């Protein structure tokens, strides 16, 4: 039996005991699909590492319980046992923050959570990330954490203070000074981005934190830009833009894969008579959208808008020409 299966089953037993007043070994065996002998071994293993599991006889039947009062150290955290354990083992899912200024804060938070568990419990929970892992997106920038700059920007955002920022623009390949009014900092696609209103251009722009050279807070205050819209709401990437009606048809060989995923919250999906799938999106026509479409190669074709279809066709022709050369 795979080791992961044992960990998942024992975690299921703990959750079942916490949510139920009491359970018999037969009930636990039936719910997990194993023998009563296996359940007995699981209970012994959980007791051994420190989980306060005990049995009692009621109406001539032996039941098993999880003693909730034993977790007195949870009172200080405000978490239930299940919440605390879930946070502890799900730390693998926030490894994407490891290269950000929040690295030490995340580490400290998990150390405090771990302090509420016995060493044996931590050993048990340390095995759970083996079955729930996160993979960083390609293209992550390992660079040094920008703790100072991000801290200043957070302060400026909360205090509504204007900022003078020196920024290296990738489009012009030069450094420029901006006066900005920070709106929010966003962690997306393995990088930090700053949304800020730029009075000079009278619009909200996006800046990559990695390209910020310096930050200086002024004493000037500003009225924050009101917006209920989610950041980058109309893009498949980290861009702003007016949404357009986009239709793409995918060939039958890729249709099941495309159909089972949510690519954007605006999407609608329909099948055609030839076994293909047609996805309709209301998104901005930007680099992220075009890269996504091109990633499917000949298995995807843009139906609308015509301008986007022409752009994809031209890019495909340039790509083919490079290989011919």
Task: Tell me about this structure.
By secondary structure, this protein is of the alpha+beta class. The chain folds into four domains: 3-69, Winged helix-like DNA-binding domain superfamily/Winged helix DNA-binding domain (Arc Repressor Mutant, subunit A); 71-130, no CATH class; 147-221, Roll (SH3 type barrels), CATH 2.30.30; 243-324, Alpha-Beta Plaits, CATH 3.30.70. The protein has ten helices and eleven strands. It has helices at 3-19, 25-32, 36-48, 81-89, 103-114, 119-125, 147-159, 255-259, 287-294, 306-324; strands at 53-58, 61-66, 161-169, 174-188, 191-198, 203-208, 212-221, 243-250, 268-271, 277-284, 300-304. Strands 6-5-4-3-7 form a five-stranded antiparallel beta sheet. Helix 2 (25-32) crosses helix 3 (36-48). The longest helix is centred in the last third of the chain and has 19 residues, at 306-324. The radius of gyration is 27 Å and the shape is flat. It starts with a helix and ends with a helix.
